């Protein structure tokens, strides 16, 4: 028997197929999926945070770089990561999907396995969505709602002179993984795993908010863009020490073999979904000994606002070369 496509079962058959195991935090749900809208509640003393992010076939993934499961996982991870970057806890998620009619139903089922696994792990309710046809590939948009104690959301604009600049994890791994996937190199499985299954840093976002982080941003477009966004929003200069950027051993090794400086993956690659931000020296003491965080620079009062990269004793302007959807 040939495999079923979504046009064989129709829009409502498809919705039925994926509509199970959607709620992982029932305490916040008043009316769940299945009605015209879902109704959720939030506890007293919290603000709500909302953000949205899209995955487009041919732009964010191809059948070579990501499986259906991976697309589902990463759609959730990239959305939840924006909650981490606000110091918030994601609680609810909706998905708008546009699918070509020839897509196999099994693709959609596996994609929703990835979605379910990520929602389950981070305890986020899948509150509903929308399905339409597409004449040019798969497009999936997620919208996430999170909660944060009132008036404590961490902005990009709070960096102050003297603050430490920190980063979590190993930025550059995702771009290294993408390079490996596009060059059919399966050896660097750790990097590939980071590209396919990034982990939104919700715990770090909460810890850093509680510790007093003055600014936060998640690394979706590369350190060079994210840190410049913080400098601009905060009206400060930032100095980054190039040698302290925590590139992983695997990225270093693969970069050496491929003849690529892995720091360019960290600075300009993106999709790491790690956190970058600033915090006072005193507050950094509270978190600096935990594994997975690294001081990489300082907020300065250098005139001429911008970001400077220190290497071998001299400073150069850190220009933004991160991912830009519309750059030629
Ligand atoms: N189409 C749009 N309409 C209104 N506001 C937008 C639109 N696209 C982006 N923005 C806003 O511009 C700001 C920057 O958007 P951007 O997409 O760069 O967010 P990000 O978190 O830096 O990146 P990512 O998309 O990777 O999460 C956000 O506050 C976002 O809400
Ligand atoms: C096949 C393929 N080619 C290139 C890339 C790289 N890429 C695409 S979008 C993006 C930035 C984040 O997106 P957004 O800003 O929309 O959140 C990056 C780094 C990829 N993932 N797959
Ligand atoms: Mg973001």
Automatic annotation (TrEMBL):
Residues annotated to bind Mg(2+) 2: 53, 82
Positions with a binding annotation for Mg(2+) 3: 36, 82, 218
Domain PurM-like C-terminal: 161-309
Positions of ATP binding: 112, 129-130, 156, 220
Catalyzed reaction equations: thiamine phosphate + ATP = thiamine diphosphate + ADP
Transmembrane segments: none
Keyword terms of this UniProt record: ATP-binding, Kinase, Magnesium, Metal-binding, Nucleotide-binding, Thiamine biosynthesis, Transferase
UniProt keyword ATP-binding, yes or no: yes
UniProt binding sites for Mg(2+) 5: 221
Residues that bind Mg(2+) 4: 36, 51, 82
Enzyme Commission number(s): 2.7.4.16
Binding site for Mg(2+) 1: 52-53, 130
Annotated GO MF terms: ATP binding; magnesium ion binding; thiamine-phosphate kinase activity
Listed SUPFAM superfamilies: PurM C-terminal domain-like, PurM N-terminal domain-like
UniProt family annotation: Belongs to the thiamine-monophosphate kinase family.
Its job: Catalyzes the ATP-dependent phosphorylation of thiamine-monophosphate (TMP) to form thiamine-pyrophosphate (TPP), the active form of vitamin B1.
Protein's UniProt name: Thiamine-monophosphate kinase
UniProt gene name: thiL
């Amino acid at each position: 028997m040939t495999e079923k496509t979504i046009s064989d079962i129709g829009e409502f058959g498809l919705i039925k197929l994926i509509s199970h195991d959607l709620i992982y935090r029932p305490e916040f749900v008043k009316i769940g999926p299945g009605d015209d809208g879902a109704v959720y509640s939030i506890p007293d003393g919290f603000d709500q945070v909302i953000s949205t992010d899209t995955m487009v076939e041919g732009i964010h993934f191809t059948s070579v770089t990501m499986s259906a499961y991976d697309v589902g996982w990463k759609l959730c991870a990239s959305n939840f990561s924006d909650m981490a970057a606000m110091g918030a806890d994601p609680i609810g998620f909706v998905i708008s999907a546009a699918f070509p009619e020839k897509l196999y139903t099994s693709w959609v089922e596996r994609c929703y396995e990835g979605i379910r696994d990520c929602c389950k792990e981070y305890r986020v309710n899948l509150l509903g969505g929308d399905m339409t046809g597409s004449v040019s590939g798969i497009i999936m948009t997620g919208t996430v709602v999170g909660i944060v104690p009132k008036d404590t959301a961490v902005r990009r604009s709070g960096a102050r002179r003297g603050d430490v600049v920190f980063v979590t994890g190993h930025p550059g791994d995702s771009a290294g993984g993408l390079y490996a996937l596009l060059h059919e190199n399966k050896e660097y499985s750790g990097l590939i795993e980071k590209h396919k299954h990034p982990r939104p840093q919700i715990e770090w976002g909460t810890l850093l908010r509680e510790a007093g982080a003055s600014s936060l941003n998640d690394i979706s477009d590369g350190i060079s863009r994210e840190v410049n966004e913080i400098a601009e929003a905060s009206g400060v200069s930032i100095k980054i020490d190039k040698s302290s950027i925590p590139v992983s051993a695997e990225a270093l090794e693969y970069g050496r073999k491929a003849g690529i400086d892995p720091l360019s993956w960290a600075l300009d690659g993106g999709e790491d979904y790690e956190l970058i931000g600033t915090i006072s020296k005193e507050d950094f003491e509270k978190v600096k000994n935990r594994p997975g965080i690294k001081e990489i620079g300082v907020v300065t009062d250098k005139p001429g606002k911008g970001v400077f990269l220190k290497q071998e004793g001299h400073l150069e302007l850190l220009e933004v070369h991160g991912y830009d959807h519309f750059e030629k």
